[in-house]
Amino acid sequence: MNAVLQARDLGKKYGRRWALRDCGVDVPAGHVVGLVGPNGAGKTTLLKLAAGQLTPTSGSITVLGGRPTGGSAQLARIGFVAQDTPVYAGLSVGDHLRLGDRLNPGWDAALARERIARLGLDPRRRAGRLSGGQRAQLALTLGLAKRPELLILDEPVAALDPLARREFLQGLMEAVAEQELSVVLSSHLVADLERTCDYLIVLADSRVRVAGEVEDLLATHHRLTGPRRDPGRLPAGQHIVSASHTDRQSTFIVRTDAPIHDPAWSVSRITLEDLVLAYMDQPAPAHLRPVLETHR
Ligand SMILES: Nc1ncnc2c1ncn2[C@@H]1O[C@H](COP(=O)(O)OP(=O)(O)OP(=O)(O)O)[C@@H](O)[C@H]1O
Known about the structure:
One of its GO terms (molecular function) is ATP binding. It comes from Microbispora maris. Residues 5-230 form the ABC transporter domain. InterPro entries: AAA+_ATPase (IPR003593), ABC_transporter-like_ATP-bd (IPR003439), ABC_Transporter_VariousFunc (IPR051782), P-loop_NTPase (IPR027417). The protein is α/β, with parallel strands linked by helices. Helix content is 30%, strand content 29%. It has helices at 43-50, 72-75, 93-103, 109-118, 132-145, 162-178, 190-196, 214-220, 272-281, and strands at residues 3-14, 17-28, 32-36, 58-63, 78-81, 150-154, 182-186, 199-204, 207-213, 221-227, 239-245, 249-255, 266-269. The strands form 3 sheets. A 6-stranded mixed beta sheet has the order 5-6-7-3-8-9, with helices on both faces. A 4-stranded antiparallel beta sheet has the order 11-12-10-13. The radius of gyration is 21 Å and the shape is elongated. The model is unreliable at 287-296 (pLDDT under 50). The site of adenosine-5'-triphosphate (ATP) has 11 residues, from strand 2 and helix 1.
């Protein structure tokens, strides 16, 4: 796999608490990757490690073949739009573009200007006076005008109304179509991920629960409903992702490459949201449950 991001046994501690522990992940190049998982799963920590804003406590992380903290040349290859899309409230939109120009060797001033004009943002307007949606668009513009090879977006649309969200994601998709760019986008809004991402990673308790191309994942996961059955009696090739039972009926979400011929089952497709929820719901392996370490 041609990976834009690879982590091995990656860990980050804040004080005595692990925010991310023993994390292994591969993010393939040339995709818009959706990163999803429960609160506290370690998504922001992973993305900040990838953007060089944090250094690992343990393990390794490689981004575009280099260490994220490997200096300004490496940082120039990565665009990062942090959670809450921070901008400098006291600076104008135009100031942000000038600052971007000064700080980034590959700055595409024409792209930045055109985007700002298309969005109808007044370059003289102070960023602190922009709406949440406009601020997010400004932050996305700064990320794109760097002309990065990898753009990382951490919950960029969480605070936006549905219309602003759609406009933001449309802008992102247009940029992906125009520039050769890999994207990692974290969000809790599965419907948004469904619209924008072609690759999905579900992260829970620092562990990748499932990763793959969205199309493949949806083609290989099925909901089986039928008379109550012990999970142990399902064929070996059907990996059970989730199971629920009533007195008479069992419902399984299974992953399998093979066709399901058992006439006892009613087989239906699942949505991306079903898939995400099924993997997020799986109990964490015991050794991954958060432990507060004590100092001796
Ligand atoms: N600056 C910090 N100091 C101490 N603990 C932190 C800090 N930042 C994150 N954590 C802890 O690290 C863990 C992982 O947090 P992180 O923000 O990476 O998760 P997340 O998956 O992005 O969550 P969310 O979906 O809520 O944004 C959480 O238990 C969190 O409380």
